[in-house]
Amino acid sequence: MNQPTINTENLPKHLAIIMDGNGRWAKQKGMLRVFGHENGTKAVRETVESCARLGIANLTLYAFSTENWNRPKMEVDTLMKLLVSSLKKELPTLQENNIKLITIGNTSQLPDSARKQLAEVTELTKTNNRMTLTLALSYGSREEIISAVKAISEKVKDNTLAAEDINESTINNHLYTHSLPDVDLVIRTSGEQRISNFLLWQIAYAEFYFTDVLWPDFREKDLHEAIISYQKRERRFGKTSEQIQ
Ligand code: FPP
Description:
The protein has 245 residues and is α/β, with parallel strands linked by helices. The protein has a single domain, classed as Decaprenyl diphosphate synthase-like (Undecaprenyl pyrophosphate synthetase), CATH 3.40.1180.10. The protein has eight helices and six strands, in the order E-H-H-E-H-E-H-E-H-H-E-E-H-H. Helix 1 crosses helix 2 (33-54). The mean pLDDT is 96. The structure holds farnesyl diphosphate (FPP). Farnesyl diphosphate binds at residues 19-24, 37, 40-41, 44, 61, 63, 68, 79, 82-83, 86, 135, 190, 215.
């Protein structure tokens, strides 16, 4: 039987991935959790390159949640070091592939070394326009919504915005993701089927794809399977099947 192929006319415009299972992958091998994260960076590189090749315009990766700060210090430190070393190492790949890097989240909480490296890569890639790679770092969706509500309230308070004019665009424009389209597809690896405070507003009409593959094992073929599954679905956005035919 022929393998189904990807229709490049019907790609998700915004793919968001919850990269889960690094710890379990390492444990299965009798190694420390940080070994899983190190190998997770290989899956990050392959996924970024595969998405760029396919023509996906926006890829968002959940790299570090607000809750992840509660992990053992050694693990947090390793994740931050991996972030810095990966950014240094991957800058040429981002440039070669014309990929812009941005971040979402409360990045002021990150260590200086990570903030400095992120600022450099963000600046150097800011005019790239083939794909936007967004790293969610110290990110929590509820925190994002709270900060949007605060900013909107300030505008209402100083009369630069009327309360009755608040609409979906107002909220969108005050989220970290203001420059990105809504999420079309969420992939979560490792068999867990939950959202974990990720892009709660932005996934209103997203499709979900859960796979048992642990993140360090996630490869181009797994990405293609997820996209093929997405392309088989009928997205109705609340309408009937007949209306969208
Ligand atoms: C989830 O696995 C993964 C993370 C919390 C971190 C993701 C980080 C990377 C893939 C490496 C660095 C990233 C970049 C962008 C350079 P887990 O630790 O929750 O696994 P478990 O559920 O099996 O314990």
